[in-house]
Amino acid sequence: MSLCSSCDSVSLKRSLSSLLDGRFVKNPKQDGQQLQEGVIHLLEQKQDLCSLFKEIGNPSPRNSFNTGINGQRHVASEGIPFGIAGSHLETGWEDLKWGATEAQEPDHHLEGLWLLSRLPEQKKGRHGPHPARLAFCLGDEERNKCRAIRLCALRHQAGRLGVPLTTLSAKSVLERLKMINGVQKDKTRDILPDSQRVQLCVLLESVRELLSYGAICPKGLWQEYRKYQKLPNLHVAYLLQFYNILDLKDIFESDDGMRWWLVPQLKALCKWIPSPEEKEDMQVQQTVLSTILGTLVAMGFQSSQKLEAVEKRRIPSCISALDDMLFWLLDTVDTNSAQTVSETATERWCQLFDTSMCDVSASPDTLQCFFKHTLTQTLTYKPRLAVSDAIALQDKWTFAKTSPLLTSLFCKLAVVFSVKQLLHQLQQVLETHEVSWKHVLCFISTLLVFNPSVKPHLRVLLSRLLTNAFEGYDLENMITAFLLARQAALQGHGIFLTYSDWFKECFGGSNGFHTTSKKSLVFLLKFLSDLVPFEPPQYLKVHIIHPPYVPVKYRSLLVEYISLAKTRLADFKVTIKEQPLCNIDLCQNISLAGDPTVQCQAVQDVEKASSLFERTGKIPASVMEASIFRRTYFLTRFLPALLTPRLLPVKADTQMTFIEALKRADKIPAPQYSSYMETCQRLRQKERKTVCEKYEGPLHVLKLQLQEQRRLLSDGNDGDISAQLSKIAHTMSFIFPCLPDDFLERKVIKLKTDMLSLPEVHLEVVNMILKNFCQCILDASKSLPPNKQIMWASRFVCVLVCNTEFLSCLLHRLWHLLHNQGSLLSGPHMPGLAAFVVHLDAFMSPSPVVQLISLRQSEPISVSEALSSALVCNTHTRMHFCVRFCVAAMCYGICRGDWLAHQQHNFAPTSLYKKLLYLIPRLLPEARETVSDGKEDQEMNSSGVLSNATTNNWKKTALCLWRHPAFSRLQYKPKNQLHITEWLSNELQVDRSKDTFTDSERLGYHQWACLNFYLIRPEDQGGCGGSMKSLCSHLINAIMDQQQSEQSQEDHRVSQRGTCFPDIICRLQEVIYEMELSNLSGSHPTGQDICDFLFELVSKRLSETLSSPHLNAEHTLNMWNRVMLALPTMPFIKVKAEGDRVYLDCEKLIQHVNNHQVYFVIISDDRSVCSPSGLLSFHLTSHFLRSNLCASAHCSLVGEEFNKTWSQISHQCPLLLVSTAYWWEHLSVVLLSLWCRVCDEEALPEQLQLITKSQSWACSLMSGQLLQISSAPALLLASSLYVDLQGRAEAKQGDGLNILEPETNVKHREVLVFLLFLCVNKYLSALRYHQEYSHQNALNMCTDVLTVLVDCADWLLIFKSDDAEKGAYQIVTLLTSDRFTQLMPWAFYSLLLQQSAELQQRAVRCPGFFSTAVSCYISLLQLLDGPSITGPLGSQMESSQILSQTKTFLLRAISQMSPSAQIFGHITQLESLCAEFDPEVAAALSTHLDPHRIIQSRVSYDKAILAQQFHSK
To answer: pTM for the complete prediction?
Structure first.
């Protein structure tokens, strides 16, 4: 209601003075004294003046509240409309309109004061017009007269009543105040409503006029008010001060019971909650509270030197009132710690603790004293908990679990102090007071979260406490240090050190606090021992895993403590592994009783078998062997480890495919498989059922917290952002619960790259986090570049990734997002994810924490390297996405690093930087010639690069970044240099069909990179230093390394056809050809020969693979063979010259075949290496022979030198000889054509013709004709027979062998023994690979040979384990590997047990059979009891059955064998060995080989010999 609208419509025609003059005209004139007496008489007679003033009319309105005290708009500030303010003056009268329009001028209020003495006696009816209306009708002179008249009237009334004027005025004001308060309907309302507030303001204006004339005493007025109001209204007290009537300070000083009424009224005022429509009342409430608080602070904490005695007497009362309010707040914290309501009574009081009070009543020094006192009172309030309770409950007092009210109080109290002051005050309180540990530790948490700079100062404080503790052996300082350190560690690794790191830093080294003396050491261990009964288990684990440093002579003291701690852990039923044997997670999932080492071994075996199955697509032979020979281990250890119940992925992974393959092979019992599948299905159903119930609440809370985080980021309050991040981390701990010992040591996260199999809730949370981060990055970058932003992003990542389970889910999601969905990422996502990866790398870079499972990464790698592996650069599309992502990341990192120049490299992920070093020159040819000079471009800065990073013109941005000095400077760090090996690895992954290059463009790029860049680049910068041999070795190693990391499960030859493998091979051929030309021209006469260089290179590689269990040596050799086949033939045979003679040297080739090739062609897990087993492939054999022929062309006597070389190979390299004989039918045509081209001769050299003759001899023999044996070696003849046997039908295989006479012809015997060896080799291969070889065919070949040879003892020599015992057949050791030799005992009995009884009897009677049989039996027992599943081969029969039959056969042979003195000594040694493995066989040996029986047998034998000689004569 406006003032104008409240005015009457009656126009003012005459002034009040004229009306009065008119009335006086009708009566006799009176002087002033008479007029005054008449007015007083009129007042005494209680005449009704209302009618009189109605006759006067309505004067022009004037706004008496237009200006307030000190020129301030009081009514406006109170939010009261002028019209309403005026209308409330007429509460006691009926004519409200008149009062609303006329009671507005403070100068005219004095004219109405003369009615105040009569107001209490007036009735509620019509009392006439308000006196102030009369004033509006007066001029200045008349108004002054009226003031004097009314003041005189008030004095006259006081005199008549016999009371002091001030008393009468106070009582009159009080009565009016009662009337104003009397109409209040809401008794709980502590702030006057608008109507009462306006009336009270008018009243106080009048009182101020009285005060100006000395007609009222303020303190007397307050005394009268206190008599009437036991609990004074704080709003009234505030208005008294506002109108300069009575200051709050005077009120508090004059009122002895101030504390008893003030505190309840303050609490009531805080509890009153205005409605949403009463915003003005809310502002008034805040003003009243802050004014009163400021007054109390000013009175209670200002310097006492400047105060009077009365004021000093009131200081305790003010402090007590403030303490009462603080204690009320702290009690609320204790009782409602779980509430999160933002508008509570105590929170309203807490909001008043603001530095703005300095501008009201308290000076900065006074305010600081108050905050220091309040902080001390808070830290020492109700110290009920003992130290032991604090140790046990400490994890419940983290920042996220602390009441927001308490953290808000700490934040407001800390704002006026520096970090040093706060920690100094904390230390003083701890030293001089009994503290509330809950409040102390919550205070530390709040400081750390809101102020990152607290961390170094807190570490200084902890060091100081520990120093004082060990200097005086003070337990209080010791306990304080440990509690504070643990509390800080509980806030997360991103805020403070983990407890394990802090403990190791303080006590883990020889310079620890406890190392000064034995007494200090005893003090520490005694302290830790006293804590054991109260310690949570995670701290005990830290002390055991990372024990304090103790000198050797005092180690017993430490052992006592560790024993005590382990006993306490046993009470908690917590186990500890000081040196984990394998992956803890997998090992703990095996629900088996027994030795944990064996269980972990089973888990490792499962991982290895799955990896091998993934690569080959076949069940590993080692698993098949274990299922037969170690069936107990296979069923009780291996299968339970493999069939551990889990949530099965939607798409079958490698493990599931492996399980299905074993089931199809009948290696998994049906009940066990069914139980596994049912358990997995129940887990899936349970997970789906409980996930929503468990996570619905935390998910909603997390969503709201992330929204609040984004809002806080726009406000830019660093402390609030940190606090919100702690709350987010706490909420996420419910969704991703951490194990108690997660902080002890960073676990290696196994990242599965084949598929994304995260729970739906976890995937939703990760997506929510990433989306929020991207939005925050965009919001923050709109106003400021990264180098000018606060460190919110680093803290965001740091706080979140401390949760190991969340980090695992996050990395899985990021990897699959970058690898599979990169092209779907929109523009806003790209810089956000790039920035996230930058901060993730900056935080996680110190230690490798990720192991890629499906990529078969042998060693853990860093986070950035793991995510970088997702950015595959093998196609045009992937390259473009990768370069855009890496450009965005590096731009952000460089720009972020501008703020911290000394840490710029921390924000530049090495793996992403190397991606750009590879991609930018490849995709942008102009960058190949551009080198930054390191000088700053005036037109280019980091923020400018960042602004272009998100644009579509990525080429321009990439070039700008490439030329940026900060980008160029990073290359000087060794870890950031792209080595030629890395470049080759990247290039070998490119799919040629989807490459951005054409073939000619790729050729030009490769030649530039190899010859123009890396060849001339220094070695310390990743180049070759100008060495062609270095370039050659890099090319060869890269090719072999790339094939080892092949991811496809298909045949690698198929995948290589699509890569740049042919291009790199072409570069290698060019380099080898250039090196060969250089050697032939003699430009490097002292240089190393190419042959030596190549064979030494591969020998080193193969030695490394043999010594490392993670590398596949067979595959390495296979790749080397592929490289050799692509190279010219010349380098593998050295051509030497001595004077005029030129000759060949094949020593390196022979060593290579004997030392390496033989180990991987005999029995190989990878059947793509060679076929058949035990032989070199046709191509490799042909390559070696052609190398020999081509090298001999450089000799003067071509044929002679070749024959010498081949003769050497025949005697020293049996594998190449046997392979040549096997492939001769195809080789002869190729070699003849080459020989004719080399030396113009139509016939092959003599040694090669010998192979043809051997083939003809074997063919004739098998046809029933025994030709004269040529001069060919026995092994060559046996190889030729072996080839012929394989080509014949099974029914006619061994017919021709009967023509041979092994008993009388040594050459025949040697040929048959070598032939048996080759057949046994095939038999063993047939057992392992029955899908590819006919087991029965191999067995028949062995039977045919054995039938002819069984009566000769030489055939037993090939089964001897000692090479020296093999005699003339020792050359077969060059055809066998160690694995093959281990399996010979198994082959011996396997063959004999499948022969006829007649043949078995003939074998038993063979000289030397008995010792060989016993030796093979012992070796077989050792073989089947091996410690690993990688031992023996599979068979058609179970291992237990084989052993049983073998033992029966051996015992029967022992019982039938006639003793002889010749074998007594050897059998005695075998008997002692049998006693260890099989006592029954040892007993049989002891019984049947008694010495007396041997002597009797010897006598009988001698008599028989003599009789035979007599009959012959």
So the answer is: 0.69
